[in-house]
Amino acid sequence: MRKYLLIFIVVAANCQLYGQENLNGTVPAAWIENALKGTGSVDQILEFGKLFKSKAISLKKVDYEENEPYLNITKINLDEDIGSEFLLFIGSNYANSNFYVIDDDYRIIHEEYLWLHNEHPQLRIYNSSDQHKLFGFKYLYGRGSGRWLFSNKIFRVDSGKVTLVLEFVNSSNDTFNFEGINGWIETENIQEFGGNLFVEYSYDFYLRSDLLEHLGINYEGDSYSLAKGEDITIIYSYDPTRNQMKFNDREITSEMMDLFFQPSNDSLFLQVFRSGLDKKVKNGSELDKRLIEYLRTKIN
Ligand SMILES: [Ca+2]
What we know:
Elements: H1 2-17, H2 29-36, H3 42-51, E1 70-76, E2 85-93, E3 96-102, E4 108-115, E5 123-126, E6 134-144, E7 147-158, E8 161-174, E9 182-193, E10 196-208, H4 209-214, E11 223-239, E12 244-246, H5 254-260, H6 266-272, H7 274-283, H8 286-299
Antiparallel strand pairs: 1-2, 2-3, 3-4, 5-6, 6-7, 7-8, 8-9, 9-10, 10-11, 11-12
Helix pairs in contact: 7-8
The structure holds calcium ion.
């Protein structure tokens, strides 16, 4: 019996870890009405936190004295039925909140913990060709010393079910890979047209100038670019059979998209950009040849 109890506790702890413990809970209509009035008081946050426990909401009032509590609710119709759904960010601090999608019958249909280091949640809503609106937010995918990666998560609601239909890099910077490849990626001008999402990508993968100095190369400039792209527009289209936003592009391939989510993965970089680097080895400068040779020897 004790053994089963232990298993139960472990499972329960895991559920909490993944932040989905309040799925299918019903939010009182009166609480939503009050929240929509926009006061966002600590009492409202505490009331919600008592009903729906999460690590984003502390139940100790003293914790709110130095933090900046956060409550932001949006009422909007997101799917084919006529009633409005609700998008809620709530937490005892703006950078540590929970995100909820609440259906028109006040049932929680999505719950997700959102840690943003020191940024506020940023809700984005994109129109679509039918009643289904795409929505999402900026998400801190990962960070460490000298590197960070924010993504954009995009969701869709269908018959009371929320699906993550797309995640792409919002902005990323990686500067601490002294021996190998550093880089940044940025997306902007995100626009919806006819149910498609247009996203403009720019990126640069480079070697740091101090590495060149270390290799005994006299080089002026902050960095030595190995692969660069500027204002490349990708079109994501909704694929109803897979319930995902898909793209098909030659300039940015799906292998490149994988690399965008794995900064400092030098061997993946060499693989993804192999043909471009081969061209540089064949037709480029002596410096191109030497540096690509250095990377290929170091990494392989
Ligand atoms: Ca609806």
